[in-house]
Amino acid sequence: MSSRSSRSRQSGGSGITEDQINDLVIKLQQLIPELRHRSSDKISAARVLQDTCNYIRSLHREVDDLSERLSDLLSTTDITSAQAAVIRNLLTQ
Amino acid sequence: MDNQKLSTNPTSLKTRFALRFIRSLTRIKMANTPVSSMGTLRKRSQTIKLAADCSMASAVGSKRSWSRSALLKIRSRARLHAFAKEKVVTKKKKKCNRRDVGEVVIQQEVMGANELRQIVPGGESMEFLNLLKETAHYIKCLNTQVEVMQNIVDLYSPST
Question: N or C terminus of chain B with fewer C-beta within 10 Å?
Answer without folding.
Answer: C
